[in-house]
Write a structure and sequence with these properties.
194 residues; alpha+beta; Ctag/Cox11 (Pfam 04442); 2 domains; 1 helix
């Protein structure tokens, strides 16, 4: 029970306005939180691609003009999540000079009786190498649709920036792993998704 007498309480109109104001503020905060949650994933992905944070590989428009003598080995890893696909690298690893452009191939087979559209997410380990690992061409730049029981070869054209050898955080790290994981494309057109 309220300790205020009816004559001490604010008028009913004032209480309703206060309640309405509190409800509008709560609703606005809720809408902002939902919007922030939806914006967080694309914003984080863009941040990682620009900075190489978390081992995210960067997209390049041109290869370096020269390679340096230091060699590095890049191993390849391929995975699928929630897809009836077989996805494998065609080579286990490649040894290259830092700054040299290399081409690697992956193979995917759709084991389903219908076409499936999927998207590949990628990562480089150790994560300190992410800002120096650049791709010129990659199947991961867009969704991939593979027909029923079809096998497709997918190339990746990449290089490791020569600045890699001058970074104190990457000195001595000459074994890298490029990893891809295919997931069903959530925004695929009807008839192409899982």
């Amino acid at each position: 029970m309220s300790s205020q007498s009816p004559s001490e309480r604010p008028p009913l109109d004032t209480r309703r306005r206060r309640n309405r104001t509190v409800a509008l503020i709560c609703g606005g905060v809720f809408v902002l939180m939902v919007g922030a949650a939806f914006a967080a994933v694309p914003a984080y992905r863009a941040f990682c691609q620009v900075t190489g944070y978390g081992g995210t590989i960067r997209r390049a428009t041109a290869a370096p003009s020269h390679a340096i003598g230091q060699k590095i080995t890049v191993s390849f890893d391929a995975n699928v999540r929630g897809l009836p696909w077989t996805f494998t690298p065609e080579q286990v690893s490649q040894t290259m000079k830092i700054g040299e452009t290399k081409l690697a191939y992956f193979k995917v087979t759709n084991n389903a009786d219908h076409a499936i559209t999927a998207r590949a997410l990628y990562n480089i380990a150790p994560q300190q190498a992410g800002q120096y690992f650049h791709k010129l061409q990659c199947f991961c730049f867009s969704d991939q649709t593979v027909g029923p029981h079809q096998t497709v070869e997918m190339p990746v054209l990449y290089f490791v920036d020569p600045k890699y050898v001058n970074d104190i955080n990457t000195r001595g790290l000459y074994d890298l792993t490029l990893s891809y994981t295919f997931f069903p494309a959530t925004d695929a057109k009807p008839g192409f998704g899982v």
